[in-house]
Amino acid sequence: MSPLAETITILGAGAMGSALAAPAADNGHEVRLWGTWLDDELLDAVDQGRPHPRTGVPLDPRVKTYRSGQLAQALDGATYVVLSVSSEGLLDVLRKAAGHLRPGQVLAVTTKGFVRLDHRIVTLPHAVTAVLRETAPDGSLDLPLVAIGGPCKANEVAARRPTASVHACGAPGATRRSHALFATEAYAVEESDDLIGVEVAAALKNVYAIALGICQGLAEHGGEPYHDLQAAAFACAVTEMVRLAGPLGGRAETVTGLAGVGDLEVTALSGRNRVYGTRIGAGESPDEALRAMQAAGQTVEGVPAAQLARELVDQLIRSGALDDWSGLPLLRQIADLLGGQEPYGGPQELAAAFARAALPARTAAEY
Amino acid sequence: MSPLAETITILGAGAMGSALAAPAADNGHEVRLWGTWLDDELLDAVDQGRPHPRTGVPLDPRVKTYRSGQLAQALDGATYVVLSVSSEGLLDVLRKAAGHLRPGQVLAVTTKGFVRLDHRIVTLPHAVTAVLRETAPDGSLDLPLVAIGGPCKANEVAARRPTASVHACGAPGATRRSHALFATEAYAVEESDDLIGVEVAAALKNVYAIALGICQGLAEHGGEPYHDLQAAAFACAVTEMVRLAGPLGGRAETVTGLAGVGDLEVTALSGRNRVYGTRIGAGESPDEALRAMQAAGQTVEGVPAAQLARELVDQLIRSGALDDWSGLPLLRQIADLLGGQEPYGGPQELAAAFARAALPARTAAEY
Hints:
2 copies of one chain form a homodimer. Chain A is built from 16 helices and 10 strands. Chain A has helices spanning 15-26, 40-47, 71-75, 87-98, 124-135, 154-158, 172-182, 195-222, 227-248, 252-255, 258-269, 272-282, 286-295, 302-318, 329-339, 347-358, and strands at residues 7-11, 30-34, 64-66, 80-83, 106-109, 114-117, 120-123, 145-149, 163-168, 187-192. In chain A, the strands form 2 sheets. Chain A has an 8-stranded mixed sheet, with helices on both faces. The first copy, chain A, has a two-stranded antiparallel sheet with strand order 6-7. The N and C termini of chain A lie far apart (66 Å). Chains A and B meet through helix 7, strand 10, helix 9, helix 11 and helix 16 of A and helix 7, strand 10, helix 9, helix 11 and helix 16 of B.
């Protein structure tokens, strides 16, 4: 280990947690991978030298694994802590870990999405900060929080295929640390000070990827491509993400860069949200498609995210930060379809409804 | 025909020219489709009621066809003229047509790309304006020029599948005319005053689509996806197009909207530039791949466009409008590879070279 080596503890041994261990280990750091009470099977596999069940890639042998009971040991002496737990479990894990965190550490989060906190919809880092304040009301645990986003598939990061990530934090010193610790030839780190922009894009892209999947499903159904509609929906998604990021405090350039455009592209190329949309476009109702995927053990993050996004928009309208829904027709269309406010009428009706939502309005009312 | 019907003449009976006849005819206008001396076979097919050989869709029976010798008749009384000829033939056709154009007409162009004019690289509308000035030095033919862009595949437009187009012109009256004449439920028209932004994005997207194709080819070669690299290249392409549009007088929002992001997405989903890139990524040298496609009668617009774009960048640097190449690493990488300045070393080397170009630099030198 080099004299500049640090100790990085990754909480959560799922796909992204185990993947991020790769660039950190490649840079010569001590990397500790802690698994939650749900991760024992994953750690059993990698401890026996088998591929990680979620990425298909063996864990780097330099990485030390810790079981759920070893949280204190895993965090002892860590200088940089990564939270990489599913959004449902994240705040629980954080509450358990908070007592072992120390001033001077950097806390990074790979988990993305909106969560409900005290009857309000907030981004995950917002909730993380609130939990740290509960633990240390004196502010001693107000650690710099880094959101890790960008177009990163865990299996490609683990396999060291070229990946561009975005590490965002209001404090530039923290992203410099991120860059120094994680950037390798294969894993690039773009530093950003727009944590909100990264969070909003990362949460919404799962919702919009369902729409792009629907366009692909329409082609499967009818045998004819709907590439024009998919491309229009892609551009519409970017425009709507820009419109939502602004009132929340994020910047347009973040959404039109790696963290928005890039992440939406990779999510549309593969992943469960895309697959879910494809099933709907090809003829399954949203409920049927969801049941089929759940039966196969696959969660679809975009489904709850669509309803949280709807609540968030309503919240922004009530607070006066947003006028109305008129600039977000595609988001509304997806949320209505998945939430059952709009009945599923099959591919033909779906194509027409998504065209109305994603295409510029026919009446140029602004003139 | 409705009392508000106008006469629209489309010059060029290829894929996009014949496709655009559909929404115009659906709106009840008199649509005339004139074929160049190279289009006789295409017109033979549609005149006999067979599908258009390039789109697979029969021509709307309300559209009247005109052969190359009937240029004057085709243009007589037209109020809106669309130029839809390949970039090599466009200025020739325009010179022949110019004598039949009249003040008060709107001239629209679907053809995109950079061209050489008096030893300078310019966008096509620039060249069109110059030719009109040659014909009428008194300025009487300074017709408002509308660039038609956005994510539009001709076969989908012809088949009336949902499509969002962008019609751009400095004169708002001209795009209002475009909107009134062409917008249908299936074919949406977004009006824009940023003709340069639309042109630059439309010309460059063919070049960048080759890079996205290369990422797809790498997956075919190695059996493992390069989605992270493709998504990073996509976002990098958008950023570079913004950087080039600015010094030429275009706006970032145009590039990050339908005309840039949308058009790049549809070009990456299908089309010859994408296919060409895929062949290179999978193991053929750029020359081999080009020969194979030419043998199948397929031109790859992105190949000459890459070299014209290189000259354009050099021109901008010489004029001081751009500092240097440092903000355009992906464009340079593609131009060098296709132009032979960088030898083809096979998929492995290619992946590394494109990762260096498309990923954020490892050394965060800006800090």
